[in-house]
Amino acid sequence: MTVVLSERKKQILKAVVVNYTNTAEPVGSRTVTRVYRMGLSSATIRNEMADLEEMGYLAQPHTSAGRVPSQLGYRYYVDYLMEKDGLSMDEEQALTSSLSTEKMREIEQIIINSARVLSAATNQTSLIMGPQFKKSAFRQIRILPLDESRGLVVLITDTGFIKNKVIDMKQHLSQAELQQVVSYLNQKLYGLTIDQVTTSLINELKRDLFRRLEILEQAFILLEESLKEERQIRVFLGGTTNILNQPEFKDVDKIRRMLNLFEQEPLLFKILEDTSSENDFVIKIGDENECEDIKECALITGTYKIRDKTLGTVGVLGPTRMDYSRVISIMRLLVDHLNMSLSS
Amino acid sequence: MTVVLSERKKQILKAVVVNYTNTAEPVGSRTVTRVYRMGLSSATIRNEMADLEEMGYLAQPHTSAGRVPSQLGYRYYVDYLMEKDGLSMDEEQALTSSLSTEKMREIEQIIINSARVLSAATNQTSLIMGPQFKKSAFRQIRILPLDESRGLVVLITDTGFIKNKVIDMKQHLSQAELQQVVSYLNQKLYGLTIDQVTTSLINELKRDLFRRLEILEQAFILLEESLKEERQIRVFLGGTTNILNQPEFKDVDKIRRMLNLFEQEPLLFKILEDTSSENDFVIKIGDENECEDIKECALITGTYKIRDKTLGTVGVLGPTRMDYSRVISIMRLLVDHLNMSLSS
DNA sequence: TCTTAGCACTCGAACTTTTAGAGTGCTAAG
DNA sequence: CTTAGCACTCTAAAAGTTCGAGTGCTAAGA
After folding, report:
1. DSSP SS3 for B285
2. How far apart, in whole angstroms, are the C-alpha atoms of residue A105 and residue A123?
3. Which distant-in-sequence residues (6+ apart) come within 8 Å of B173 by Cβ?
4. What are the sequence ranges of the domains in chain B?
5. CA distances from A222 to A154, A227, B341 (A)
6. Of A187, A264, B254, B264, which has the fewest CB atoms closer than 10 Å, so is most exposed?
7. Confidence of residue A344 (pLDDT cuts 50, 70, 90)
8. Between the CA of B25 and the C1' of C17, what is the distance in angstroms?
9. The predicted structure's pLDDT at residue A182
10. What pLDDT is stored for residue A221 in this prediction?
């Protein structure tokens, strides 16, 4: 499929992509000769560019304008031409230090902060999918009596989720009775992922317990509601207003569509889930994206882990005219940091 | 201070406000005669409008355009002319039902949903300040041993906040010892608001306990971090993209400033706090607002309570051209609902 | 065969001019 | 005090103009 390009064509294509990424203006043949002097006249460049256009790597907004990379052009650039490290030492250090500011312990805090840093560093919008509660393994359940008629159910997973819920207990339970129920539940559920705790399993447990105690109906509500409630995994956004700085979004209507999308968590989740690959970063350019609303954008995604278990996805969303090299470098740094600070 | 307006001037002012609220177009004298026929010719209306302009209630975008209410005009309308109930029975019912969809128990869920409903019903941006953790009263603290070296500290307030934190316990504590520490803490702290739990109090407690047990340093971290961490109270937003539909925000630059504001929680908090009054709704029009960024907007705020204790603030933010009557009716409904569902 | 200077041509962005109509203020008569 | 009538104003939209960056093509040179 991939047509072989002459070395000169590659250089020109790269020049166009880089220049367009910086300026957001169509790139003319003279600009190419001026900025990336390669001992050729503009006329020659012109001929080459005409070729590249015919091959589909460049496009012209109108007859008498410079060239702009097409989607295919970006794809070629990303696959074969891009420099691998788009980050200076200085930037790298600055970034590292802004990531490891404090001993943040809360998982949610870490992620919110990461989203912020990522969007600030890339000048794009960042999306981070929080750890998936459903995929976590059940660790233990506890019931704390609060007063006469109420108790606190606490549910803990291996990835550090702690969910709690106040429940009404219609009848009073003695400490011993409670203990009994709790240890029974722990024994049955230990090690299962939340996904695996199906309604039918819950019902089975209920039947078992009801024989002995008719009281704990409410206790199961935590389990059941956890299942429902967390169906929508949380997606954390950073720098949603950054798209306003991109010249390709100077149209209020586009802005509206974009911001609307940002408000719909399930859609964002789907976007991130569709693209994620376990091991490396994925770049989706233009209509390589499934989602209709971001077919004019590029999306770069990667995953982060806790102790080799894939937990969530990190993404950067921006116009196709994006500094791919730089963004990927930043994301790599961030993901490494995330892996580290979540594993402790 | 308030100049007395003739009945006719009041009617005309009201007509201009209502019409402008609906159309967002300057209102001409002919429009007034046509739509609100009051047996007068446009020339007469014109004279009256010229008077109203001189008095400062109306303004003209340019010489040959219709009139637009000035800030003072809105103020007069809101204070003296506005219909009190801007909501039809049907709408009221629809609203009530969308508020009480499910038996939502989580306080945060209730508020998020409220923000969504409020913004959808008003077509404006809604802000709801969550219950202030700091103002809540300490109810009880518990420590759950998780395994050999770790425990879960749970802190519960009278307004239903439950905060938890996993702590490392350097030395193993027996159940009895733990029990002793916990009941000591509960006894000392019960009934204090989180505000009142100062660092010095904590230190005093520490000193007391250290005499007996040198272990629980970590347990205090929950308390201390709770104090710091929650300094920024959460503000929940709904319908941030609604401002994009307002013609007064067709300028990308204004949009940017506005959305930027929305991303800065501390500012939002300040805006809500500045305006809140315990008992009734407050309407701030234009530069009656402290905050520079919303001097072109109108902000309506009210408070909600749990059992007569003021918990937080609800706000609606939009252009000064707003259907005040309708928005207030909706907010009244919402606040009542909120008071009810939070008190159970 | 590849490169390049030269030139006519194209097209959009920015600026200016024109036009149409909504709305005003003023005057004089009812 | 009200109103018909009219000249006047001002904007938004349409139409027209200018300017320059950039192209494609041709023909001459390496």
Report:
1. strand
2. 27
3. B145, B181, B213, B215
4. 7-81, 89-131+233-342, 134-229
5. 9, 9, 19
6. A187
7. low
8. 27
9. 76
10. 60
Q: Which residue has the higher pLDDT, A224 or B333?
A: B333
Q: Which of A270, A317, A344, A323 is nearest to A110 (CA)?
A: A344
CA-CA distance, A238 to B62, in Å (whole number)?
A: 42
Q: Is A234 on the interface with B (CB under 8 A)?
A: no
Query: What span, in angstroms and rounded, lies between the C-alpha atoms of A203 and A227?
Result: 14
* SS3 assignment, position B144: strand
The DSSP H or E segment spanning B255 is helix B252-262
Nearest Cα of chain A lies from the Cα of B160 at a distance, in angstroms, of: 9
Cα–Cα–Cα angle for A18, A21, A23, rounded to 5 degrees: 105
Q: How far apart are the first and last CA of chain A?
A: 46
Question: Quick one: CA dihedral A15, A17, A19, A20, positive or negative?
Answer: positive
Considering the segment(s) B134-229 as one domain, its CATH architecture is 2-Layer Sandwich (3.30)
Identify the pLDDT of residue B251: 85
Q: In this structure, what DSSP letter does residue B2 have?
A: P
Tokens of B101: 């969809």
Distance from CA of A26 to the nearest CA of B (A): 23
Q: Provide, in whole angstroms, the distance separating residue A287's CA from nucleotide D22's C1'.
A: 29
pLDDT greater than 90 at residue A211: no
Q: If we measure between CA atoms, which residue out of A63, A164, A118, A89 comes closest to residue A336?
A: A118
Phi/psi zone of residue A97: left (φ > 0), alpha (ψ -120 to 50 degrees), beta? alpha
The position carrying tokens 């006249």 is: A41
Q: Count other C-beta atoms under 10 Å from residue B266's C-beta.
A: 11
Tokens for A132, please give them. Answer: 């998936």
Q: What are the distances in angstroms from CA B39 to CA B32, B33, B35, B36, B168?
A: 11, 8, 11, 9, 82
Alpha helices in chain A (DSSP H): 7-23, 29-35, 42-55, 71-76, 89-99, 107-122, 175-189, 199-212, 217-229, 252-263, 265-275, 324-342
Contact B316, B300 (CB under 8 A): yes
User: In terms of Cα–Cα distance, which of B146, B187, B148, B190 is closest to B164?
Assistant: B146
CATH number of A89-130+233-342, picked from 3.30.450.40, 3.40.830.10, 3.40.50.2020, 3.30.1250.10: 3.30.450.40
For residues B329 and B145, is the Cβ–Cβ distance under 8 A?
A: no
Contact A203, A211 (CB under 8 A): no
The answer to whether A171 and A217 are in contact (CB under 8 A) is no
CB-based burial of residue A313 (10 Å sphere; 0-12 exposed, 13-18 middle, 19+ buried)?
A: buried
Count CB atoms within 10 A of the CB of residue A130: 19
**Cβ <8 Å between B164 and A166:** no
To 5 degrees, how large is the angle CA A160–CA A206–CA A162?
10
Q: pLDDT tens digits for A233-272?
A: 689 999 999 999 999 998 888 999 999 999 888 899 999 9
Q: Which residue has the higher pLDDT, A281 or B39?
A: A281
Q: For chain B, say whether A231 makes contact (Cβ under 8 Å).
A: no
Domain B89-131+233-342 fold is Beta-Lactamase (3.30.450)
What percent of chain B shows pLDDT beyond 90?
49
Residue nearest to nucleotide C24 (CA to C1'): B64
Write out chain A residues lying below 8 Å of B144, CB-based.
142, 144, 154
User: Given pLDDT bands bounded at 50, 70 and 90, which one contains residue A215?
Assistant: low
Tell which CATH architecture fits domain B7-81.
Answer: Orthogonal Bundle (1.10)
For residues B175-180, give the mean pLDDT: 73
pLDDT mean across residues, chain B: 84
